[in-house]
Amino acid sequence: MHGYQFEIDPSARAFTGGVYDEGRRGWLFDLKNNEAARKAFKQGEWNKARIECKGDSIKTFINGVPAADFKDDMTKEGVIALQVHGVGKKTEAIGKEVMWRNIRIQELK
């Protein structure tokens, strides 16, 4: 699998809402220069993610706070998927949960 990935990053780095290009180029838009977005994610609570893609424009929001905003036209079509990275040898991740609710997909006109 490769392509655009809206990151959920509960680490101290706090890049939730950043966009990563899985399997190809790496970070397309990290949040190192967006302190407001880095503070918007609430660990252990329900968070609202919004992703807007229209043409080559990609914008993300976390709990209503603008996060990523850039243009990229490498991938014009693909799939929408929900992914949880493998636990692997990270024993601290065993038993953790990720949940989604109220997922809506709307075509932009």
TrEMBL record:
Domain 3-keto-alpha-glucoside-1,2-lyase/3-keto-2-hydroxy-glucal hydratase residue range list: 1-106
Pfam families: 3keto-disac_hyd (PF06439)
Name of the protein in its database record: 3-keto-alpha-glucoside-1,2-lyase/3-keto-2-hydroxy-glucal hydratase domain-containing protein
Record organism: Prosthecobacter algae
InterPro entries: AL/BT2_dom (IPR010496)
